[in-house]
């Protein structure tokens, strides 16, 4: 009769709205390293996400691009293995390790099978603790980075964001590309890379999430093994980035049939009491899906673009509220005008219906995020870096539901400031006067 | 290695070639001919609901390129009972996300929602399978949106334009030579009548595959599918899927695509290649492994020879997409190091392939590739959406569920002899296109800032 009981249980469960039920344990290794763990035993592998706060913002003066290049070199030889040897070892284990530099962090996303976990962790450990930075590897990866920098200089989207950042944050690492410039990367030495490694990979700034076929005890031992030998403290973190950009339009002439439009101004901090209200307001205005204000006005009614969206970007040392669209050169001026008008009137015009639709969507979509071991591991690390409580997932939808129309209007009034809105337009936009 | 911009484009093909297998796959067919695949996974209370049509850009009438993709956009407009945009609003109001995609061989629509909203998703999707109602204003605006999509995806990206030119040169008779999004001059001329004709011909249950993956049981899916899709009559006039096929290729083709926006030149060679066929996947399996041997990662033949030994490349790759209704292609890519011309790069690429064919397959490398393919089955169980897509692509490309399930073992059985024989068959210059992407000699960066 077991089948019948199960069938009944499924029926009852399916009648409830989806909830995010992620059972997170906090693990402290014998050596004192903290991690969040979700045991998920049904598939014999583990996803491990490790992030070091600081990232490319820790580049030393004149060494822009050092952290990025160092990160690209971690898998290019470690311990006794040169780059080919390291790659062959990793392939034999069918493990994957992705190393990525970001503005505020450096991340390690690893995935390994239960059947060879110890070997996979030992190999990853050698990359983190004992990378070789061989001269030939440095030159090989440097050439790849230089190629990317050259290509980015011809990419309209990248030109737009670089232009915006440079004007917004002239005196902070956020104002320049973390890849560095052709000149700065060409000048980096092996010593600079070793220094970047010493500055970034340190144990008092590490955040860990693990999901998969592993116990709390085994994870603790694994973390001591993996991270226990890293130095404790690194280079000082940079301070507040400031925000130096005023309202207006900047046109970057670029020969392409379509203008890329990037727009925004200063945003709202992640720990602001009104952050949830701002998050909901942004969803109504320019969030995901086909029914936001901007999609309706710019795409559905006028056919000006294939896609338009806005997002809140709370970073470690600055906050932005930003949007992006691409439109035919001939209609760029019209697009800018529509966006500016919508920006100006959103606070006064949000309706109760829009608020309810946004809340239903956001609360319904939230559980769908937790759809894979690696994604859950990444979310858990993000939560720790934002200093959210371990039970946040269970309460998050209630916080969204608690947002009132008064809240969204108040926060929209505060965060959508049309007179501060700055547009960077890359292309050959017609009728767009930088003075307007 | 840092992420090079070429990787994203090629990654799609590589992922599609990986074998994936669900813990529980169930299939059945409704009385009206609609095929159903259920992938059961109760780890999260969510489902992916997909309807795949066996029609894509390669089934378009001549002169109407882009109609399959344009129609995909129009399916988000109204029906007899739903207002324009209501579909996506209802999905969003239920906490779901929805979208659609079109390729040469299929058009697919999907939603991700909480498992208890599956009923509504089927009601909506069944409604727009046959009840689409289009108004002139909607479709005119949407046609401009599609042109902007082409501007964004293709016209703004020299790499995408280059790929379009290479496909057009590779296929001498088959419509795979025409881009999925359509040529701009034809897209601009698409009319309501074209869309409606295409819709009435191809959108029917006997041309569709329903895939539901997630927290469901096959019995639930069968009951809901019979309720919503069951009553829709089959289209008795569904045309057989026969496209113009390639003649023997007698002369290699070469092209140089120049664009001032190109900062990093590269060379791509594509060869016409056989695809996976139902019950006959061995050659495609050998080509899938060949692509890994030549270009799958750090220790691959091209990478080792051209990046590590001669230093003539900063990046190399080999790619093959075997899941295709008709003849597909096998590609080789080299991004030359600074100071290496495209001519030298092409010669280096050819020399590296020739040396590999001479020396044969490294047995340890082949073992590592097979180990990774076995592991991909384990990792793949964690990605239900990819799994659902794998089945959808296969079933709209002439394969069966049995073929999908047999594929991992066929890959494991591939030998060195199979790989070399497949390489000998495919590497025929007469059936190839060699493309150079470069900036014009007198190009100057086009950028200047005006505050």
Oligomeric state of the chains? heterodimer
Q: Give me the strand/helix succession of chain B.
A: HEEEHHEEHHHHHEHEEHHEEHHHHHEE
Per the CATH scheme, the topology name of the largest domain in chain A is Cytochrome Bc1 Complex, Chain A, domain 1
Shape of chain A: globular
Q: What's the tally of helices of chain A?
A: 16
Question: How far do the termini of chain A sit from each other?
Answer: 75 Å
Which band does the percent of strand residues of chain A land in? 15-25%
Strand neighbour order, sheet with most strands of chain B: 1-2-6-3-5-4
What is the helix tally of chain B? 16
Order of H and E elements of chain A: HEEEHEEHEEHHHHHEHEEHHEEHHHHHE
What class do helices, strands and sheet pairing of chain B give?
alpha+beta
Low-confidence stretches of chain B: 7-22
In short:
Chain A is 44% helix and 20% strand. Chain A has 436 residues and is α+β, with helices and mostly antiparallel strands.
Verbal overview:
The complex is a heterodimer of chains A (436) and B (451). Chain A is an alpha+beta fold and 436 residues long. Chain A folds into two domains: 22-227, Metalloenzyme, LuxS/M16 peptidase-like (Cytochrome Bc1 Complex, Chain A, domain 1); 248-427, Metalloenzyme, LuxS/M16 peptidase-like (Cytochrome Bc1 Complex, Chain A, domain 1), CATH 3.30.830.10. In chain A, 44% of the residues lie in helices and 20% in strands. Chain A has 16 helices and 13 strands. Helices cover 43% and strands 18% of the residues of chain B. Chain B contains 16 helices and twelve strands. In chain B, 50% of the residues are buried. The interface between A and B is large, with 89 and 82 residues.
What keywords describe this structure?
heterodimer; A: 436 residues; alpha+beta; Cytochrome Bc1 Complex, Chain A, domain 1; six-stranded mixed sheet; five-stranded mixed sheet; 44% helix; globular; disordered N terminus; B: 451 residues; 16 helices; 12 strands
């Amino acid at each position: 009769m077991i089948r019948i009981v199960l069938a009944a249980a499924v029926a009852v469960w399916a009648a409830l709205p989806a909830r995010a039920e992620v059972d997170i344990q906090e693990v402290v290794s014998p050596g004192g390293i903290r991690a969040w763990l979700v045991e998920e035993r049904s598939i014999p592998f583990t996803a491990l996400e490790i992030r070091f706060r600081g990232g490319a913002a820790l580049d030393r003066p004149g060494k822009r691009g050092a952290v990025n290049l160092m990160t690209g070199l971690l898998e290019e030889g470690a311990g006794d293995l040169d780059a080919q040897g390291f790659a062959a070892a990793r392939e034999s284990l069918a493990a994957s390790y992705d190393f990525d530099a970001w503005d505020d962090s450096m991340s390690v996303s690893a995935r390994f099978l239960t059947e060879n976990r110890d070997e996979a962790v030992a190999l990853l450990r050698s990359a983190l603790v004992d990378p070789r930075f061989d001269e030939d590897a440095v030159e090989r990866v440097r050439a790849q980075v230089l190629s990317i920098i050259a290509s980015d200089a011809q990419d309209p989207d990248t030109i737009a964001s670089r232009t915006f950042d440079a004007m917004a944050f002239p005196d902070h690492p956020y104002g320049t590309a973390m890849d560095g410039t052709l000149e700065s990367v060409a000048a980096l030495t092996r010593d600079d890379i070793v220094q970047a490694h010493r500055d970034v990979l340190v144990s008092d700034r590490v955040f860990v999430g693990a999901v998969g076929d592993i116990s709390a005890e085994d994870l603790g031992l694994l973390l001591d093994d993996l991270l226990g030998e890293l130095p404790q403290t690194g280079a000082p973190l940079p301070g507040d980035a400031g925000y130096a950009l005023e309202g207006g339009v900047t046109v970057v002439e670029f020969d392409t049939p379509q203008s890329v439009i990037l727009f925004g101004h200063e945003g709202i901090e992640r720990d602001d009491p009104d952050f949830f209200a701002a998050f909901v307001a942004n969803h109504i205005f320019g969030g995901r899906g086909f029914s936001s204000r901007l999609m309706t006005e710019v795409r559905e009614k006028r056919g000006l673009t294939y896609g338009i969206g806005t997002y809140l970007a709370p970073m470690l040392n600055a906050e932005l509220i930003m949007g992006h669209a691409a439109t035919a050169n001939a209609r760029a001026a019209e697009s800018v005008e529509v966006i500016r008008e919508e920006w100006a009137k959103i606070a006064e015009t949000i309706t109760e219906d829009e608020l309810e639709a946004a809340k239903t969507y956001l609360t319904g979509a939230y559980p769908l995020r937790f759809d894979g071991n690696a994604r859950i591991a990444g979310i858990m690390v993000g939560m720790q870096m934002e200093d959210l409580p371990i039970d946040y997932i269970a309460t998050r939808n209630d916080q969204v539901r608690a947002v009132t129309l008064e809240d969204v209007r108040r926060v929209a009034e505060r965060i959508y400031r049309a007179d501060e809105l700055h547009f960077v337009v890359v292309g050959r936009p017609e009728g767009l006067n930088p003075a307007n | 290695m840092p992420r090079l911009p070429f990787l994203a484009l090629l990654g799609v093909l590589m992922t599609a070639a990986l074998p994936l297998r669900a813990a529980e796959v169930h299939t059945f067919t409704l009385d009206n001919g609609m095929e159903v695949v259920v992938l059961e996974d109760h780890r999260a209370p969510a489902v992916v609901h997909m309807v795949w049509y066996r029609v894509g850009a390669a089934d378009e009438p001549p002169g109407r390129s882009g109609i399959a993709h344009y129609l995909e956009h129009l399916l988000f407009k109204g029906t007899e009972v739903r207002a324009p945009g209501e579909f996506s609003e209802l999905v969003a109001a239920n906490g779901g996300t929805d979208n659609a995609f079109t390729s040469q061989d299929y058009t697919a629509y999907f939603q991700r929602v909480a498992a208890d909203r599956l009923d509504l998703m089927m009601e909506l999707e069944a409604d727009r399978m046959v009840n689409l109602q289009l108004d002139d204003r909607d479709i005119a605006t949407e046609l401009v949106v599609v042109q902007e999509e082409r501007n964004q995806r293709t016209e703004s990206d020299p790499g995408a334009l280059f790929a379009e030119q290479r496909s057009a040169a590779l296929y001498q008779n088959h419509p795979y030579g025409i881009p999925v999004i359509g040529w701009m001059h034809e897209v601009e001329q698409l009319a309501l009548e074209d869309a409606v004709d295409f819709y009435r011909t191809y959108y029917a249950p006997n041309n569709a595959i329903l895939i539901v993956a997630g927290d469901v049981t096959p019995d639930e899916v069968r009951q809901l599918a019979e309720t919503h899709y069951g009553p829709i009559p089959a289209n008795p006039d569904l045309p057989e899927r026969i496209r113009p096929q390639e003649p023997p290729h007698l002369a290699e083709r070469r092209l140089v695509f120049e664009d001032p926006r190109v900062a990093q030149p590269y060379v791509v060679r594509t060869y016409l290649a056989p695809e996976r066929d139902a019950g006959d996947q061995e050659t495609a399996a050998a080509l899938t492994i060949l692509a890994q041997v030549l270009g799958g990662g750090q220790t691959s033949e091209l990478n080792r020879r051209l990046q590590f030994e001669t230093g003539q490349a900063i990046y190399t790759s080999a790619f093959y997409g075997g899941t295709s209704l008709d003849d597909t292609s096998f590609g080789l890519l080299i991004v030359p190091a600074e100071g290496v011309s495209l001519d030298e790069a092409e010669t280096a690429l050819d020399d590296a392939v020739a040396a590999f064919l001479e020396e044969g397959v490294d047995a340890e490398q082949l073992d590592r590739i097979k180990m990774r393919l076995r592991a991909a089955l384990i990792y793949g169980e964690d990605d239900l959406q990819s799994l659902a897509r794998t089945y959808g692509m296969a079933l709209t490309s002439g394969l069966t569920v049995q073929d999908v399930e047999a594929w991992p073992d066929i890959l494991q059985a591939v030998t060195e002899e199979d790989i070399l024989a497949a390489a000998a068959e495919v590497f025929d210059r007469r059936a190839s296109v060699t493309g150079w992407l470069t900036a014009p000699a007198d190009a100057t960066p086009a950028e200047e800032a005006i505050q």
